[in-house]
Write a structure and sequence with these properties.
Blueprint (H helix, E strand, L loop, with lengths): L7 E4 L7 E7 L3 E8 L11 H18 L5 E9 L6 H7 L8 E3 L2 E3 L3 E4 L4 E9 L3 E2 L10 H15 L8 E8 L6 E2 L2 E9 L3 H22 L2 E11 L6 H13 L6 E4 L8 H7 L2 E2 L2 E3 L10 H6 L3 H23 L1 H11 L5
Parallel strand pairs: 3-4, 3-5, 5-15, 6-16, 7-14
Antiparallel strand pairs: 1-2, 2-4, 8-12, 8-13, 9-11, 10-12
Helix pairs in contact: 1-8, 3-4, 5-8, 5-9, 8-9
Amino acid sequence: MLKAHGFSIKDIGGLPTAFIATYGKGRPHIALLAEYDALEGIGHACGHHLIAATSVLAGIGIARALRPSNGKLSVIGCPAEETIGAKALLVKKGLFRDVDAAMMIHPSDKTEIVKLSLSLSRLGITFNGVSSHASANPWKGRSALAGMLSLFQAVDTNRITMADGNRINGIIKQGGAAANVIPNTTEAEFFIRAADIGSHNALLKRFSTMVRGTAGAFGLGYAIKHKGNVYYPLKPNFAFARVFETQLKKMRIKVDNFFTDKELGSSDIGNVSHAVPTLHPTLAISDAPCPAHSEAFKKQANTPGAYRTIKTGAALLALTAIDLYKSRILLSELKKDHYIKYS
């Protein structure tokens, strides 16, 4: 579709479904992020199909309005936000090195212009013990499951002294094969989150100490495996947010919050925001509370109303981008804001 509207398309090495579609040349160079992904076992309960369509439509709209010599536009295909975090990898690959500003819109049950996000590390934890018969000779075994249950208790006990914004959540993925056998192997997955990278690294260290200590207490071997890329917390850009707010006002769209640090998740958009000025607002697809990653949100994201927000969101992104192409002063404000340390 993008190629049919004058974009040149290039695959991105190492990510089979990632791409970069470019139109025009020179500066400024603005990137629209077409995020696409689904949730295992539930599907489109996070609205990534709406995100991708909105950015592609916005890109086509900008290309129709932009003279090729007046600047460069990229639509970047960003897969796997729910797993490996492709945007983090694209930042490492230097894809945003010559980008002046990046943006996308996320569907939600609220319209919020600046919504913070937390850092994220995904960890796979394995404990290895010794198997034995649970009735005949349990004393010959070392229960990997008992160790894992103790690790979860250690995490819960530590919560009372964790700083606000710090999160450790986990599930047991493998607990054993039969109730009459002392399990010799257990696996769990934990998510580590924090409000800033310093706190994130400190929490990772603290959790690793819990894993080592628990393994030692139960006489178990252990392994800590990092899955995917570390997600950075979102670095807000309020100058960018104000440009976007102007378009919301023009289109008479109700804003629930200009800024919020409540009910936060994590996204690899955070990594992009540390590289370039980034806009990541949410746009309501529901008039009633409808939390993401739920069956209710999945159902709402497949309604005529939700699909109408593709057009609304695309117009908002396109008009915001055109303002930046027209005004170098606005763009310089974004860049100044980017180098302000947010607290």
